[in-house]
Write a structure and sequence with these properties.
By secondary structure, the chain is an alpha/beta fold. The chain is 32% helix and 20% strand. The protein has one domain: Rossmann fold, CATH 3.40.50.720.
């Protein structure tokens, strides 16, 4: 069976992570219902012609056009009614969502189906980020529903560091079946 990685949420963290995973010997699947807005260009891996397009579809086109990488895209919101279909056959699920409800939905589904799940998360204030495997992760509620976490380009260096740590954890898991957690802060990156 071919390796299949489903990346859920391709905003700031997810778009950069997917781009860094383009060289893996795996089928990449992107899931995101949202559309690219001009304000996203400063912190997310989208280009100006992507404005107005669904994020999963836009990233699919960019990976194909820039790198010759073919991926599958689902421009839908993950929900209890479709999460089983979206994650079906996944070797690994990568959570880059920005809200607790979606993170918990993935966690419940992956635990029920014994699928590996790794979470990537950023603090809204840009001071730290986490890469944590599901068995050691608990989603924090947002301070306010729909709270922006990565607007503008102010936190782009941190986003890049967390995306790189997440991509490395994915790579190591696929190669050696290890589950490394990372904490990224203004003081650097450390394995936890």
């Amino acid at each position: 069976m071919a390796t299949k990685i489903v990346i859920c949420g391709v905003g700031a963290l997810g778009s950069h992570t997917a781009t860094l995973c383009r060289n893996l010997d795996a089928q990449l699947v992107l899931v995101d219902f949202d559309r690219v807005e001009s304000k996203n260009l400063l912190a997310q891996a989208f280009v100006k012609p992507s404005i107005g397009k669904n994020k999963a579809e836009a990233l699919k086109l960019q990976l194909a056009n820039f790198y010759g990488v073919k991926v599958q895209a689902f421009g839908v919101r993950a929900a209890p009614e479709n999460v089983g279909t979206l994650l079906d056959g996944a070797t690994l699920v990568v959570d880059c969502f920005d809200n607790a409800a979606s993170r918990n939905l993935l966690s419940a589904r992956c635990r029920a189906s014994s699928q590996a799940l790794v979470h990537g998360a950023l603090s809204a204030d840009g001071t730290f980020g986490l890469v944590r495997w599901d068995e050691r992760f608990a989603a924090d509620a947002e301070d306010a529903e729909g709270q922006a976490t990565c607007e503008g380009g102010e936190h782009l260096p941190l986003i890049g560091l967390v995306a790189a740590a997440l991509a490395r954890s994915i790579q190591d898991h696929l190669r050696d079946n290890v589950k490394r957690d990372y904490q990224v802060s203004l003081n650097g990156v450390s394995e936890t």
